[in-house]
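Lab notebook, design round three. We kept the backbone fixed and only want residue identities now. Task for the bench partner: fill in a sequence for the structure below.
Input structure tokens:
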């Protein structure tokens, strides 16, 4: 296992702010300001931004700088088409490998959720999103296909960002 670098730290922190919607689509990402905020030089920030560009979370505009990528309706449609295809594959593969103990643990989680709903307990949106992601990651990991797990992880990240951004939109604009 390789050591965690300043680039990794910068990447993780910037990525988290993008996925959470704290850095909204179109937000300008100034290398210098990010470096100051993170307590690192500009080089790790620049490298982190390049990695995020490859993941399509940011875009570089010549002569202007780096911005958080916009979320276009076509991107959302394509994301869900690919997600559907890959999750169907993950389920087909996972069926062969899921141990009964893992299913039992998972059942307990959903029994708890059903009990909360029956008692009309409000489950915070963040918790709902985390449970949903955990469910889908569980299936992906049970497929035992590392490339599929990685692709679905990237898709889940984009999906998380879409959910974070759309839940911040005032209801009158939805």
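Proposed sequence:
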């Amino acid at each position: 296992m390789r050591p965690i670098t300043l680039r990794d730290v910068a990447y993780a922190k910037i990525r988290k702010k993008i996925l959470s919607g704290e850095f909204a689509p179109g937000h300008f990402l100034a290398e210098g300001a990010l470096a100051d905020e993170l307590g690192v030089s500009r080089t790790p920030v620049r490298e982190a931004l390049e990695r995020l560009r490859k993941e399509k979370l940011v875009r570089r505009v010549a002569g202007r700088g780096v911005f958080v990528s916009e979320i276009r309706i076509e991107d959302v449609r394509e994301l869900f088409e690919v997600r559907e295809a890959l999750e169907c594959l993950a389920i087909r593969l996972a069926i062969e490998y899921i141990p009964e103990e893992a299913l039992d643990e998972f059942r307990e989680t959903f029994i708890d959720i059903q009990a909360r709903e029956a008692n009309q307990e409000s489950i915070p949106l963040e918790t709902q999103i985390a449970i949903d992601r955990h469910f889908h990651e569980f299936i992906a990991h049970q497929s035992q296909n590392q490339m599929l797990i990685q692709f679905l992880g990237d898709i889940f990240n984009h999906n998380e960002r879409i959910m974070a951004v759309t839940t911040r939109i005032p209801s009158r604009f939805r």
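Keep this in mind before ordering anything: The first strand starts at residue 28 and ends at 29.
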